[in-house]
Input
Amino acid sequence: MAYTFLPETCFLVILSVSVVLANLPVPKNVRVISINMGVILEWDRPNTSLGNLTYTAEYRSSDDAGFSTVCRNQTERRCDFTQGIHPFGIYVFQVRAERRGETSRWAKTKEFLPDQETVIGGPTVRLVSREGNLEMDIQDPVMKVKDLIEIYSTVGYNIRYWKEGEEDKATVMNDRQQNSLVLIQLEALSRYCVQVQVFIGEFEKTGEFSQATCETTTTDGRVQAWLIALILVVSFVVVSVALPLLFLVVWYFYKGLKILYPTATLPDHLKRYLMEPPHQYIFMAMQNSSQQEEQYQEVSIISESPLVEEGPLCSHSDNGMTEDGEVLPQNEKE
Output
């Protein structure tokens, strides 16, 4: 049997081989990263030395006939699908490489169920020490789509706590339905640490543990008697010292104000005298005047005594006096 090869047939075979050989390698290690209902598709660069590669990523739900493109012709090797995802859907993702009009085959993922496969992050834990116990308040992690209690019908918590430095002796409480608990029978004045993770019973699914939160316990919630007495004594001493000092400060301040701003006022004539300019010319005239010679006369004073009967009477003229008892001037005696 003879076969005839036409030139056109050879050309088509060669062209087909060229197109196949020109296909780019597919992206590697395609994976879905989902935390708290956020959905991100990531992949690695294909095995090729070619540069300037771009990527297109798509998804399809079980209810859709075809794929929907979310990321197109981008160089980043990740794509965020969170906005188009429903917690109870079933999804398939695919991505391909592109370069100058050439494309690789699609690299697909297996079916992804967000409510079952998403990773639930650790909740927020708050501890308060009261009456020797630790009161614990648990706040659910924030989900990207809806609230945690809206997605799962039953939400429990696995709790582990330990005395600081003794983590290997941690106490574990599983599937607690309350988000407010009290840890009892703890050592007084000791520091305890707590971690909590979400537990979804319907899927036997556990989330990530929260960061360790630590708090120091009190002594059965009551202050020691010696501490109360110490506080009272210190308060009494402080008050006893502070009050007298405060009184002295106020007193001296008041006295200073009285000195600086006296309430008594000067009489009006003194005010006028002080306000008038000093009459210095009077004192200068007194200092510059010559000393005048004082005029004086010598005067003798003789006390009057009783007369002696036997003795002769003394003449008044001899003693510088007139018969009427007047004192004669000095020039007349001479």
